[in-house]
Amino acid sequence: MNSWISNITAAAAACISLVTCTAATAAFPEKPIRIVVPTAIGGPSDLCIRTVTEAMYANLGQPLSVENITGATGNIGLERVANAAPDGYTIVQASAANTANWVARPKVSFDIVSGLKPIGKVCVAAFTLAVSPALGVKTVEEFIRYAKANPGKLSYGSIGYGSSQHLVAEMFAAMTGLGILHVPFRGEPAVAAEMAAGRIHMMFMAGAKPFLDGGLIVGLATTNRDTWIPIPSLAPIGKSSALPGFSYNGWNGLMAPKGTPDAVVRRLSEALKGALADEKVRSVIRSLGNDMGAGTPEDLAAQIRSDISKFKRIIDERQLTFPE
């Protein structure tokens, strides 16, 4: 009898919990939403998410605040969100850099596959092969000739060991046979400033356009397979005589803690898709040198799987090792 009563009580409690959860999900959102960006202010992920928040607010009816939490190639910010309540009120703007970092250093890096749930891509980007104006080069071929004539004197920046910027630069070095010193930074704006000063010589940048427009750096090519619409003046690097077939596209996108209800994820995704359809938002995103993401969980999940496969192949082929 006691067992029977216990079962009834447990079933009733579960039912109440389900009804409460369903009601809370249906009412989502009821308070402001916090978006963590695990990179510096002014970087591509930061600028992209700030571009869409106002349009998402119009759809959700609640404000979205952006907080930059940098460090450990994004691990600190990602872990903060992964450990937050899985209710949709704390989410993160992840990127290809975070996936690359996990593939490069799985023992010490945050695993976005097991720790976070995709909401949707915000922006996609072709990387720009950018160089310091101090070099005086204007084409990919000129840069390669200059680097070969000055062995051991050039350096390239990234946003951290094992980031996608780091790994794409390693692809470039492998295909050209160049030896260029890697110098990690906490964000692309810091690298752009160093390139402008002539202290860093090259970087594959996800958010180069504002720095190109400001004359701080020189763009040589993009990593898109075809002409990249946001920066049509730059040719695809894969169509140069030096690196035929070379290509890569980065991304950034929203993710929620594992355990966040599917209905909440879908609500956020629909708000993101609506924002990305807004012509003003699209114009700003393209002015940053990016294009719009699909905004769906399925598309972001597929992108992450593809990145993991590609980055593992680069690391194995180059036999790269990374500091823990």
How would you characterize this protein structure?
By secondary structure, this protein is of the alpha/beta class. The protein has 2 domains: 32-124 and 249-318, Bordetella uptake gene, domain 1 (D-Maltodextrin-Binding Protein, domain 2, 3-Layer(aba) Sandwich); 128-239, D-Maltodextrin-Binding Protein, domain 2. 45% of the residues lie in helices and 18% in strands. The protein is built from 12 helices and 11 strands. It has helices spanning 2-27, 44-60, 75-82, 96-104, 112-115, 140-149, 164-176, 188-196, 209-213, 262-276, 279-287, 297-318, and strands at residues 33-37, 64-68, 90-95, 116-126, 128-131, 155-158, 181-184, 202-205, 218-222, 249-257, 291-292. The strands form 3 sheets. Strands 2-1-3-10-4-11 form a 6-stranded mixed sheet, with helices on both faces. It has a 3-stranded antiparallel sheet with strand order 8-5-9. β6, α7 and β7 form a beta-alpha-beta unit. α2 crosses α10 (262-276), α4 packs across α12 and α7 (164-176) packs across α12 (297-318). The longest helix is centred in the N-terminal third of the chain and has 26 residues, at 2-27. Residues 11-21 have low confidence and may be disordered.
Please name the defining characteristics of this protein.
D-Maltodextrin-Binding Protein, domain 2; 12 helices; three-stranded antiparallel β-sheet; 324 residues; alpha/beta; 11 strands; six-stranded mixed β-sheet
